[in-house]
Automatic annotation (TrEMBL), chains A, B:
UniProt-recorded name of the protein: AcrR family transcriptional regulator
InterPro entries for this protein: DNA-bd_HTH_TetR-type_CS, Homeodomain-like_sf, HTH-type_TetR-like_transc_reg, HTH_TetR
Coiled-coil residues: none
Record keywords: DNA-binding, Transcription, Transcription regulation
Domain HTH tetR-type: 11-71
Segments crossing the lipid bilayer: none
PANTHER family in alphabetical order: HTH-TYPE TRANSCRIPTIONAL REGULATOR BETI, HTH-TYPE TRANSCRIPTIONAL REGULATOR RUTR
Record carries keyword Transcription: yes
GO terms assigned for molecular function: DNA-binding transcription factor activity; transcription cis-regulatory region binding
Positions of the DNA-binding region: 34-53
Length: 193, 193
């Protein structure tokens, strides 16, 4: 049991470390945040941070990884739907839900070139996700207009969901509005409520 | 004439300084860029930078100011149009044109929390612009759905216009696609071409 406790403490430090990193990244940008600042904020030594992550890039990757894994799963589920309409609705609903649940993280993804680049570099998840999402929402072999339309919708939903303007809205309200806006923009018929 | 030449040289240094700042901000974020880095990149002393700008905030403001002034003018012109449709088309066309002409700057606005915050703080231009743009595009007294729709469209257009994915598209192509996507999303009728 002793080793389990040690493991749990380490895990706890790790998750506190990631939460602190996200907060500092949001405030100062990734470029403006150092491992030393993260250590100071946590009240630990830089060596303690270094025990978990060797570089800021590793922290950025660890921050982004769970959300990207969720996205992959949403895309798999969406692709397994039978009709085009159900595929679009599933992908859109999953994307919007993810945005709303991880608002702070989304705001960070949206607003820091360091994060986006670190993810592209290390996970190649963002590019892969974008390609799959465009294929699902715009259909196979979309023309330029179709691709740009989907980009505008996804970027707009993500940026609006993470925006400070809507911080006061509760999750359910924000989720349902973003979903309806997305459906309308994608030309999906009105739902009966 | 001597003083005019000196003035011209100073102006030239200032505009080179701003261009260099934009490039460094894009690469390292505002938080990750120092006055010293800007001086080094320009091959001048920090004192020479300091002659023009006392703080990084002043540089950010100077970078953003011309585009915000253009936006104000577009909104004035749009508000002076007679029909709601013409108001929407004018505001949208002006916004899209500005995005496309200043792609690098827009990418920076979109992707750095430091820039957005500096603008909000020093010019209060961004918030004022957003309020006026929403009023123009969503109409007077819009409900939450209307406000969110306009936010998604504006954020989506700006993020897509500044995105690296579309770097290869020439200005005319990008401009016309973004304009058409925006019109469709705002429920404007198809134009005869």
């Amino acid at each position: 049991m002793a080793s389990m406790t040690v493991g749990t403490v380490a895990e706890d430090t790790k998750s506190r470390l990631l939460a602190t990193a996200v907060r500092l990244f949001s405030e100062h940008g990734v470029g403006g945040t150092s491992l030393q600042m993260i250590a100071d904020e946590l009240g630990v030594t830089k060596a303690a941070v270094y025990y978990h992550f060797k570089t800021k890039g590793e922290i950025t990757e660890a921050v982004a990884a769970p959300a990207l894994r969720e996205l992959e799963q949403i895309l798999d589920e969406a692709a397994a739907q039978r009709s085009r309409g159900a595929q679009i609705d599933h992908a859109l609903a999953g994307f919007v839900d993810l945005i709303v649940r991880h608002r702070a993280l989304v705001a960070l993804f949206n607003t820091d070139p360091g994060v986006a680049r670190a993810i592209d570099r290390s996970l190649r998840g963002a590019q892969n996700f974008k390609t799959r999402m465009v294929a699902l929402l715009a259909g196979p072999d979309p023309d330029l207009a179709g691709v740009i339309t989907v980009h505008v919708i996804l970027a707009g939903l993500a940026l609006t969901g993470g925006a400070a303007d809507h911080e006061d809205l509760d999750d359910d309200t924000l989720r349902s509005h973003l979903f309806e806006v997305g459906r309308r923009m994608l030309g999906r018929p009105k739902r009966r409520v």
